[in-house]
Amino acid sequence: MPQFEIPEQQWAQVVEKKGGPVVFKQIPVQKPGPDEVLINVKYSGVCHTDLHAMKGDWPLATKMPLVGGHEGAGVVVAKGELVTEVEVGDHAGIKWLNGSCLACSFCMQADEPLCPHALLSGYTVDGSFQQYAIAKAAHVAKIPKGCDLETTAPVLCAGITVYKGLKESGVRPGQCVAIVGAGGGLGSMAIQYANAMGLHAIAIDGGEEKGKNCRELGAQAYVDFTTTKDLVADVKAATPDGLGPHAVILLAVSEKPFHQAVDYVRSHQDGRPQQIAGSLRLDGGGQDCRQICRRYQQIEEETGYMLRGGGVVFFIFFFPDETTNLS
Ligand SMILES: [Zn+2]
Ligand SMILES: [Zn+2]
Question: Which stretches of the chain are assigned E, i.e. beta strand?
Fold first, then answer.
């Protein structure tokens, strides 16, 4: 097992009071607890959530002072005595979910992000904007040695958000998925996952430059919402049979695309509810997430669709009711 020299002090970006600023300073290196690992962070992505944490936008209080960051990729340099699944020298990632109880009904059903005792990196515990960060061994992302740590870092939040959305949407190889906000940080990853999963990706965003980027990443079609005369018709026309995409991943932070998605998504088949919309981020322009949840309830009442979601990143699924014909 490799040995690492671990310093007493390290550099970190520290939010000392709600609202900031972020102070670059030296702080002590923590020692891992029995079920924890210490990761020497080599690269960290920056997420919009980090800004919300600093500004105290959300109803859940942050740790203070706080080291933000939840997209940290690095090397395990120390571990607690109970840790068997991770070795010193392994490459590992710090994600938003830093730890959970592993015993509640959510944890028992693979819904750990909903655990009432969850520890959140860069929010309720210090995260990856420091040279040495702590995480529960059971929850670190194991990164294969052949993977570049720099490009892996943003996968740890942005990547898994859209990957999970695609998986949860139930879309299968050969089917079509519309990605709304495809030219952004999450959307650009969603296009690449969709390609790798054998899906026909229809990118929706604004402007020629984003269109070029989306096509280069592998989108089969691009619908520019700033120039289209009929977005719903154009999205449907972009599917090989003209009947609309089988799933929609909503990454735009405004509400209009939600309603449009209901209009262009394909009807469900054989009477069984089909999951037809993917994920919507909670980063709603600095809104309180409870406001967003209330708005979701209203959309549900207005459209007659059932919304389901929860946790840090909301995955919203629309289930058409028996009598609704979407096409
Ligand atoms: Zn994030
Ligand atoms: Zn739990």
Answer: 9-15, 22-28, 36-44, 66-67, 72-79, 91-94, 97-99, 119-120, 132-136, 141-143, 176-180, 200-205, 221-224, 247-250, 279-280, 306-308, 314-315, 317-319
